[in-house]
Amino acid sequence: MGDQAQRFLFGFQIQQTHRNYAIIPFIMALKLTLVLAFALLINIPFGVWRAGLKKFTMAWWLAIHLPVPLVIALRIGLDIPYASVPFVIAAAVAGQWFGGRLRKKPAPVSAD
Question: Which domain holds residue 36?
Answer without folding.
Answer: 31-102
